[in-house]
Design brief:
The complex is a heterodimer of chains A (355) and B (355).
Chain A (H helix, E strand, L loop, with lengths): L1 H21 L2 E6 L9 H16 L3 E6 L6 H12 L4 E4 L5 H10 L4 E5 L8 E6 L1 H15 L4 E6 L4 H17 L4 E6 L6 H13 L4 E4 L5 H8 L3 E6 L10 E7 L2 H13 L6 E4 L6 E4 L7 H16 L9 E2 L5 E3 L7 H4 L16
Parallel strand pairs in A: 1-2, 1-3, 3-4, 4-5, 5-11, 6-7, 6-8, 8-9, 9-10
Antiparallel strand pairs in A: 10-12, 13-14
Helix pairs in contact in A: 2-9, 3-4, 5-6, 5-10, 7-8
Chain B lengths: L1 E5 L5 H25 L4 H9 L6 H26 L7 H18 L8 H27 L3 H21 L33 H19 L1 H11 L1 H6 L4 H28 L10 H11 L4 H25 L3 H23 E5 L6
Antiparallel strand pairs in B: 1-2
Classes of the chains: A alpha/beta (355), B mainly alpha (355).
Chain lengths: 355, 355
């Protein structure tokens, strides 16, 4: 009897370990928008597809799109964990507290939350150094503008956006000391109607190069109609505005998703706060317009190389805020932790952060 | 020649047959739809309609989802019985969430046993206030209640967004638009360990019975029913339309407000910009599915909750895109309401063309 049960359990064990070797790693994704938004959620889904392409049968991915950032998020994340996913990416800020709660209840499942700030043993965060792309955008806009006025559509006054506004302005100022920046807050991440209104309001005030922190191509289309210029954000938006489009700063999540899945497979995954930019190819310059003046193109390439190699960091002191205080002391580059808390405008921006 | 004729008496046969017919038609449509996208119809229908009730976690989640739908639908049923076309449950819910959450944040360091009741009361009063304004405008200036309540939905939404970006924002939240997490003293207790079912569902079911009692057992309810059936007769009988209108609107506002504050003090635990994924609008469908009967609303709310959860599960377990799921849900609701049309109407067949 004893021998028999021992044999049975040995058989079960062998079966289990065999099954483990065969079974793909299950990876779940939670998106705030539809995968067809051509912006934020679309790029995360491209990352998911890249993951499947790279690992083939060794991974099985699942996604849930259009998940509201309210009480529903916790249920969806829980159901993904219950369905046996080993690693779950929640890709919007509003999923932070639901992810924290679910991570606590499923200690064996790994969670990664994009753009948040709460970590635990099985919950990491990841975010893009979008300010790197924004600095190059600023440099380019500063060279291209004829009215010395560039525009920025802000989404929400959170550190990421404030940081990028600063980066864009510092970039523009580095090549054009007379440049001015006008800022409009759309209070949305994705609303083509509002974004169009905001772009038109800025262009009515003399703006001739548009930057935006919202995800739809609407501002580019508005610039195209007026024969002005604009820079794409999150995904390659060149086809929406072939003449206006200067380049797009594209989010590329694939390398990160591959790296993290590999780490889980190898058993080396650790909870961390990861920042990815040009260096990690998580940001790329897509579809640079071939008709740019030669000096502009050369400057774009040089700045890109300098940031990518780490030789140049946009937030290196001395930097003053627009109230005259020292924001970054000389010879210091902001650490990631400090970058996460930027809540001041750089000197020269004649505006106030809305509160 | 086929014509639509009003029945002199509602058909008692159709009352019973209508839901069965609707479900049969939906199943046929579902089979065609899911086959067309290459998924097994049997499995898809199982995941959409049965899996949400397959284990205790999911059943718990169904009650969590059902609570706010039911609270709003009960109030709306009464309003519609009295010919008050209140489309504003969404705004009243958000107002309740906003007002109540402001109170919860006031109690953030308190351990008082009164903190929760006062918070809930604040939510209900805020909801009542939000329905009182359009009611006043209608009764005093004869403004269109449908339009004013819809507009007040938007005002409530933008007030809430302003509040989470401004005065109610978490001071330690790095500027992200969310309030601090509420203190335990203002969180609704959960009914079972390891489940999110909270007191909100109890409130909802009690409210349905109260509404049923008022409607069918009280003189006030008799007046409401007469008003709905035959307004001139009600006036002739000397019933006060003003009093009834105020009663149903404030009742609905209080319940919707309670739904809102039960979401933020329940499963969410803080005030966020996305308190409601449109419960107030879905509740209109729930009210009609329940045939404007408060107890019917219980079944209807349960049904809608299952549908929503099935939508998530269909994505997780079968990779069915959310757009296809929404189409299926829309068709199901269409058939249900369309078949109900034949309770009071019938098709007349005749050989002669009508002039």
């Amino acid at each position: 009897m004893k021998l028999k049960s021992l044999l049975v359990s040995l058989g079960l064990l062998a079966g289990a370990s065999f099954a483990q070797a065969e079974e793909p790693l299950k990876v779940g994704f939670v998106y705030v928008g539809p995968v067809g938004d051509l912006g934020w959620s679309y790029e995360h889904d491209m990352g998911r597809k890249g993951l499947e392409e790279y690992f083939g049968d060794k991974v099985k991915t699942t996604y849930v799109e259009n998940v509201p950032e309210g009480a529903d998020a916790e249920r969806v994340i829980t159901q993904l964990a219950k369905a046996g996913n080993d690693l779950i990416f929640t890709t919007s800020f509003g999923f932070m507290n639901p992810t924290v709660k679910v991570a606590k209840r499923f200690p064996k499942v790994k969670f990664e939350h994009a753009t948040g700030y709460k970590l635990s043993k099985n919950l990491g965060t990841y975010v893009l150094r979008t300010y790197e792309g924004r600095y190059i955008s600023g440099v380019t806009a500063g060279m291209m503008t004829k009215t010395n006025t560039i525009g920025y559509i802000g989404s929400f006054p959170i550190p990421e956006v404030i940081r990028d506004i600063n980066a864009a302005y510092m970039g523009a100022k580095s090549v054009n000391p007379d440049v001015k920046m006008k800022i409009v807050w759309a209070n949305t991440w994705y609303d083509p109607g509002k974004e169009t209104d905001a772009a038109n309001a800025l262009m009515d005030q003399g703006v001739d190069v548009m930057l935006q922190h919202t995800d739809s191509p609407a501002p580019l289309i508005a610039a195209e109609k007026r024969g002005l210029r604009a820079i794409g954000q999150a995904s390659d938006q060149s086809k929406f505005a072939p003449n206006a489009h200067i380049f797009s700063v594209r989010d590329n999540w694939t390398p990160y998703y591959i790296k993290e899945v590999q780490a889980v497979m190898d058993g080396t995954w650790k909870s961390q706060d990861f920042w990815g930019g040009f260096h990690d190819e998580m940001l790329t310059l897509a579809s640079i317009n071939p008709n740019l003046p030669k000096d502009v193109r050369a400057k774009i390439d040089a700045t890109y190389t300098a940031i990518k190699s780490g030789e140049f960091k946009p937030f290196t002191g001395p930097i003053k805020d627009n109230k005259g205080n020292v924001a970054v002391p000389a010879n210091h580059s902001l650490t990631d932790q400090e970058l996460a808390q930027v809540n001041w405008y750089v000197e020269g921006i004649t505006d106030e952060i809305p509160h | 020649m086929i014509r639509i004729q009003a029945r002199t008496e509602p058909s008692s046969i159709m009352k019973l047959v209508s839901p069965i017919l609707a479900i049969a038609l939906t199943l046929i449509f579902g089979c065609i739809l899911f086959s067309a996208i290459g998924k097994s119809p049997a499995q898809a229908l199982h995941v959409l309609l049965i899996a949400p009730l397959a284990d205790s976690y999911n059943i718990g989640e169904m009650f969590v989802k059902m609570g706010p739908l039911l609270l709003c639908a009960v109030g709306l049923s009464l309003c519609y019985r009295a010919n008050m076309w209140n489309i504003g449950a969404e705004g009243q819910l958000l107002a309740g969430a906003l007002g109540g959450s402001a109170m919860a944040l006031y109690f953030i360091d308190s351990e008082s046993a009164l903190a929760l009741p006062i918070t809930l009361l604040a939510g209900m009063v805020s909801g009542m206030l939000w329905s009182a304004i359009p009611t006043f405008l209608k009764l005093r200036f004869n403004s269109n209640l449908i339009l004013t309540t819809i507009m007040f939905n938007y005002i409530a939404l933008y007030l809430l967004i302003w509040a989470v970006h401004g005065p109610l924002r978490d001071p330690q939240g790095f500027g992200f638009p969310e309030s601090a997490m509420f203190a335990d003293s203002t969180l609704l207790p959960t009914l079972f360990e390891s489940s999110r079912i909270h007191l909100g569902i109890v409130f909802a079911i009690i409210s349905a019975f109260i509404a049923w009692f008022i409607l069918s057992k009280s003189h006030l309810g008799f007046q409401i029913r007469v008003f709905g059936a035959d307004e001139p007769a009600a006036r002739y009988a000397g019933f006060s339309s003003k009093k009834l209108s105020w009663f149903v609107m404030l009742f609905a506002g209080a319940l919707a407000g309670l739904a809102g504050i039960s979401e933020t003090t329940g499963p969410i635990g803080q005030l966020v910009p996305n308190v409601s994924p449109g419960y107030g609008y879905s509740a209109i469908i729930v009210a009609y599915l329940g045939r404007l009967h408060p107890l019917g609303a219980i079944i209807a709310a349960m049904f809608m909750a299952v549908l929503y959860m099935g939508g998530d599960l269909a994505q997780i377990e079968m990779g069915i895109p959310v757009a296809v799921v929404s189409m299926f849900q829309g068709v199901l609701l269409f058939f249900l309401l369309a078949c109900d049309f034949f309770i009071n109407n019938r098709l007349a067949f005749s050989n002669q063309a009508t002039n």
